[in-house]
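User: Fold this one for me? It's Allantoicase.
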Amino acid sequence: MAIEAVDLPDFARKAINLASAGLGARPVFATDEFFAPLERLLQDCPAVFHPGVYDDHGKWMDGWETRRRRGPGHDHAIVALAASGRIAGFDVDTAHFTGNYPSACAIDACLAPGGPDETTVWTELLCTSPLGPSAHHFFPARVEGVWSHVRLRIYPDGGIARLRVYGTPELDLSRFGDEAVDLASSLLGGRIVAFSNGHYGHQRLLAPGPAINMGDGWETRRRREPGNDWIIVHLAARTSIERVIVDTAHFKGNYPDACSVQAADLSEAECAVDAAVTASSLYWRDVLPRQQLSPDSIHDYGAGMIEDIGLATHVRLNIYPDGGVSRLRVFGRIAGAGTP
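Assistant: Here's what I get for Allantoicase.
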């Protein structure tokens, strides 16, 4: 079942899914995968149900599903996060599991960049909590810290369609030095704050690597009224923007006619509430004046095209009047703690 953004808890709206396969999360271990493999648990798309579809082990299910236990114990699975980071909360989704979902779950985490082993110390972030059939279950994390892996425990067995681990990648500033990096990247901590429309999707606009198809980016519905569409990104760090890439890969008959980029430094804002950020964006300065776009192309705007507006923490990509963009990259050097 689709969830409207307004129904999401704050941690799910303001963080990224560190357990996203599209960002690089991967399955590590499962006690059992008899009915459905662990890798499906991490897929970015919503779980689907195909009536009448069976494989050699039984009903085909879109998620991770273990066999029925006939003795003591419980099943568990370990997942390597796309990037080490701070976890704010979880969505344990039992979509389409109506008579074969676990009664409860718990989640642990560890920091083991080289991978967990028998000596790894796990910390419980979610104590044993009840689950229901075919529903999203949102749980806040109860312990703060930086983690690289999570362990999902299910009691005693059954199926989970999707696991979302909402958090923020831990940005190691010393790693980059004076190098210009893509601070809009999800893997560094860039996140989407708000958008005018995302009818065909928006989650992958800041993902690493090139888009694989037209569904792998941000695309709006066809605009039938005056105005234009836009999307606001909170950058991973404060920066002076040096280069912007707007990629329309795969968008051939539905790319925007033009684009522009505005930016602002909200680091001193007392309360950077998303709604307030959105309202203020109307008055941000142009860092990239309006530019014509082409279909299925990488548009690279660098020196001579980018306006020097000082430091920025947020950008707003405007598209005219509507359409699709596969990737947005915003390059700059990370401003030091003492930078004015």
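One thing worth pointing out: The first helix runs from residue 10 to 13.
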